[in-house]
Amino acid sequence: MEHVDGNAIAGPLAEFFAFDVTTATGRCVGCGSIAELARAMVYRSGAGTVVRCSTCDTVLATLVESGDRAWIGLRGMSAIEVRRAPSAG
Amino acid sequence: MSFITRGFSGRSRDRDERLPPGQTLVSDFPVLSAGPTPEVDTADWEFTIRTEAGVHRWNWDEFMALKIDDVDTDIHCVTHWSKLGTNWRGVSLDTLFEDVETEQEYVMAHSYGGYTTNVPLDELLDGKAWVAFEFDGEPLDPEHGGPARLLVPHLYFWKSAKWVHGLVMMDQDEPGFWEQNGYHIHGDPWKEERYW
Amino acid sequence: MSDATTSQVTALGAALQSVPRSGWHAATVAAVHRETPNASRLELDVDGWPGNAAGQHLDVRLTAPDGYTATRSYSIASSGSSTRVVLAVDKLPDGEVSPYLVDDVRAGDMLEVHGPLGAFFVWAPAAQTGDRRPVQLIAGGSGVVPLFAMASAHAEADDPTPFRLLYSVRTPDDVYFSEELRGLSDASAPLRLDFVYTRRTPDGWPAPAGRITREALEAAVIPAADRPRVYVCGSTGFVELVADWLVGLGHDPRSVRTERYGGT
């Protein structure tokens, strides 16, 4: 199954966060690598969206959407860093 | 805010009384995956059942030497599609559990690739579930869970774990991969047990 | 508690409550043109659109009379403060949404859009970011859309950053924004444009049609020694191949930003 990049799920993530979380960096609990969510690998299917670490494949996050309900799971990130002063653009 | 877009109908959605509520019929076989397709050679394949007493193991040849069932059944995916009259071959869980002694009543199915899903043991026995390795007369495609997948057709299809590798018995029902992330712990399509 | 901290707490709090689907806008199709034999250019007038950066995308939601909905992401070909948003949509053979957008939609139709989305795969003028490193854009097929937005924004801003686009495309007929790209890359213009034709070349083209090679890539991109920022957009296979080669050619992985588009 082909994957896309983390930036592709900015839309569904916008329901959970008041800022664009795809530019935030997270730390993978599997291998410890730290990268922007936009660089993660995203597997989308009708059942849900699975976000995996692009270094070690660990599941970082899951998204399930159904009509008026949506779930986010952040099982694979020990922390997420957001930049307080937004960069230009 | 939501309004109808003129001229848009989407894929055709047929109704049929054999369909559980909220389901529509498809003729193709949509692929649902949570990650890359694991490449599992039957030479390396192994299926295990782990209980409080120990582990039962089958390699591919041992597994293929077990009694094989032909299964005709309808399948229902939580994403609202159903397929009627699908044809499978596989080994019944009754056969696999013949020599397994356990007091534990719940099962976590584990897959190559890390996927898990939970099912109570009594929903796997009495002709209700198989480890299937053939679909429509062909070896099960890796995309659809080959070499072998769990087949629990009376529950939503996410319970029919692709690339199944083993079952671990549990004292209590615990949620698997999707069940931890919004999906229903049980998943009966006739009761529309889709989400929490 | 600082403002920044407050907003982070608010963001986390929002995840715990029922959240309205914010950021959805009603869009009216203002114009539809045939872009290539397999793609259409859609101009949308989006009520309340806040403007967007070059490279961002939006989600389009279509609703059928029985309530069935389908949502897909599309890159935006335009940027700036305008509420007129331009998309170019490629028709996928088994698609559910793209055939409607390419063949059926007409001026006056209404659809819903969510956006602008994605702040990672974007470009802004050096005057805003202070980043003066050269920029290499690499497009596979319809992956040119967000890169075209960047090249247009670059020309419009009169930005001094060196800009180069490598565009892999099936045939000369499949080139998106053909005229605009010619304008952006003529002798006096700031963009350097290179093509790779995978199925059929124009007459007299020096190279035979075929998939991009590592050598062709190396010849047509800003060398790693110049530390370019690289944006790659295309099918998953194309992006994977190109990104691996770029890293092999010495480009810093952190300077390579990718956008893969999946199936339907």
TrEMBL record, chain A:
<dbReference type="Pfam" id="PF20120">
    <property type="entry name" value="DUF6510"/>
</dbReference>
<protein>
    <submittedName>
        <fullName>Uncharacterized protein</fullName>
    </submittedName>
</protein>
<dbReference type="InterPro" id="IPR045423">
    <property type="entry name" value="DUF6510"/>
</dbReference>
TrEMBL record, chain B:
<feature type="domain" description="Oxidoreductase molybdopterin-binding">
    <location>
        <begin position="35"/>
        <end position="178"/>
    </location>
</feature>
<feature type="region of interest" description="Disordered">
    <location>
        <begin position="1"/>
        <end position="31"/>
    </location>
</feature>
<dbReference type="Pfam" id="PF00174">
    <property type="entry name" value="Oxidored_molyb"/>
</dbReference>
<dbReference type="InterPro" id="IPR000572">
    <property type="entry name" value="OxRdtase_Mopterin-bd_dom"/>
</dbReference>
<protein>
    <submittedName>
        <fullName>DMSO/TMAO reductase YedYZ molybdopterin-dependent catalytic subunit</fullName>
    </submittedName>
</protein>
<dbReference type="InterPro" id="IPR036374">
    <property type="entry name" value="OxRdtase_Mopterin-bd_sf"/>
</dbReference>
Automatic annotation (TrEMBL), chain C:
<dbReference type="Pfam" id="PF00970">
    <property type="entry name" value="FAD_binding_6"/>
</dbReference>
<dbReference type="InterPro" id="IPR017927">
    <property type="entry name" value="FAD-bd_FR_type"/>
</dbReference>
<dbReference type="InterPro" id="IPR039261">
    <property type="entry name" value="FNR_nucleotide-bd"/>
</dbReference>
<keyword id="KW-0001">2Fe-2S</keyword>
<dbReference type="GO" id="GO:0016491">
    <property type="term" value="F:oxidoreductase activity"/>
</dbReference>
<dbReference type="Pfam" id="PF00175">
    <property type="entry name" value="NAD_binding_1"/>
</dbReference>
<dbReference type="GO" id="GO:0051537">
    <property type="term" value="F:2 iron, 2 sulfur cluster binding"/>
</dbReference>
<dbReference type="InterPro" id="IPR050415">
    <property type="entry name" value="MRET"/>
</dbReference>
<protein>
    <submittedName>
        <fullName>Ferredoxin-NADP reductase</fullName>
    </submittedName>
</protein>
<dbReference type="InterPro" id="IPR008333">
    <property type="entry name" value="Cbr1-like_FAD-bd_dom"/>
</dbReference>
<keyword id="KW-0408">Iron</keyword>
<keyword id="KW-0479">Metal-binding</keyword>
<dbReference type="InterPro" id="IPR017938">
    <property type="entry name" value="Riboflavin_synthase-like_b-brl"/>
</dbReference>
<keyword id="KW-0411">Iron-sulfur</keyword>
<feature type="domain" description="FAD-binding FR-type">
    <location>
        <begin position="22"/>
        <end position="123"/>
    </location>
</feature>
